[in-house]
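User: quick one, fold this
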Amino acid sequence: MPMKYIFSTQVSSTSFDLKSIYWDILKELIYFIICVKRRLNEKNCCCFRFKGSVSSIEVAECAELAIRKVFPDCEVVKIPVGDGGEGTVETLITAMGGEAVYCVVHDPLMRPVEATYGILGDNRTAVIEMATASGLTLVPVSERNPLRTTTYGTGELIKDAMDRGCRDFLIGIGGSATNDGGTGMLQALGFRFLDRKGNELGLGGQILNQIYEIDCSRALSQLRETSFTIACDVNNPFYGEKGAAYVFARQKGADDAMVRLLDEGLRNFAEVIKRTGRIKIDDIPGAGAAGGLGGGFVAFLKAELKPGIRMVLDALRFDECIRGADLIITGEGKLDKQTCMGKTPCGVLQAGMRQGIPVIVMGGSVEEVEALNKSGFLAVLPLLPYPVSLEQAMDKDFTCWNIGRALEQQLRVIQYYMNH
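Assistant:
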């Protein structure tokens, strides 16, 4: 009887040393799943893109060809997956249908910027990466200042999607340039923050210490019927030594004095939130994500914070996709001790373990094999048999050949033991 397999790959941007590791295939986090099912007369394929080396459909075709060389009667299904970070919009559009939407919003310094988000095939669910509007890469190093930067553009993306009929939101909040507690995002949605004299405050982390009252009377009415799920892979609280300012603000341009000021501001904002009848966000794990944006989402929009991989897999109904599988093969550009700390292979592993399905993981660079085995992976396998230059690793034909070769060789072993 033909077996059913799941094959997933993540190819990530990772610094590496050619003397000690093999290579990293591509420059970005891109993932895919190939599912080989028992039903022999049906085929269902998804296409996706691999930037910098080879297109997603080329990768999928190479993998499918390798599978069919060994198991010619298998059904092959390709499903993109991701961890809620960069590439989430493209991943979910590819897997679930839909379209990319382009709109001009404000960047962290309130300059116009074209940003992208996705509307999925149900025409109700929007997928947003806040970094496209409020990300650190949008601000030159010399201009980074979390007292000034704002999440206003992220709120504009939400508003645009609501105007198009979206009421369910999946939002990744990694890579922010901001430390404003989500106030900018909320201001774009109609919330007003007032000082002790009732004056409306401006934008950025600089206002946090001045907030005394919150005016919700002009908040967009659509928010009452809208749900938010936030991809959050940090557990930092809103403020304090492990909070948003002390842990993350320096990388966004803050000096020591700014860090203290921002932390005091977040503390004040949390007190105002509690005093005005909302929840206590002080100790909520993840409230400090993206400069407190996680806390802002929870306090004002009743958002649910989830690990990024869980948000994506839940959206894909991944547990249903792998039901009945005999083996899952997953992969990542670099496998190390960080792999089991919320990255895509970890999420795939956990999904497989819940259903008693063994999981093999492949990687371009493989470290900490023993730790990965102890975490539950049946086997940890390097993608390449020898070191190569980055130029060769990025060559399309070489990449395709190696993906097909590595997968075929593994499946040949499985076939042998099936037949003996």
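User: anything notable?
Assistant: Residues 46 and 231 are 23 Å apart (CA to CA).
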